[in-house]
Amino acid sequence: MRFVLTGEQREFARSLDALLRAADTPGVLRAWAAGDHGPGRALWRRLGNAGVFALAVPEAYGGVGPLPVEAAVACVELGRYAVPGPVAETLAAGVLLAGVGGPAAKEWLPGIASGAAMASLRLPGHGPYALDADAADAVFTVDGDGLRRAPGPGELSVSADPARRLFRPDPGGEPVAGGRAVEAASRAAGDWASFATAALALGCGEELLRATVAYVRQRRQFGVPVGSFQAVKHRLADTLLGLEFARPLLYGAAVELTEELSGGRAGAGSPGAGAGIGSGTGPAEGTPGSGLGTGRGAGSVGAGSRTGPGMGALGAGAAVAAAKAAAGEAGYAAARTALQLHGAIGYTEELDLAWWLRRARPLRDAWGTPSACRARVLAG
Question: Using CA atoms, how far apart are residues 127 and 175, in angstroms rounded to an integer?
Answer without folding.
Answer: 21
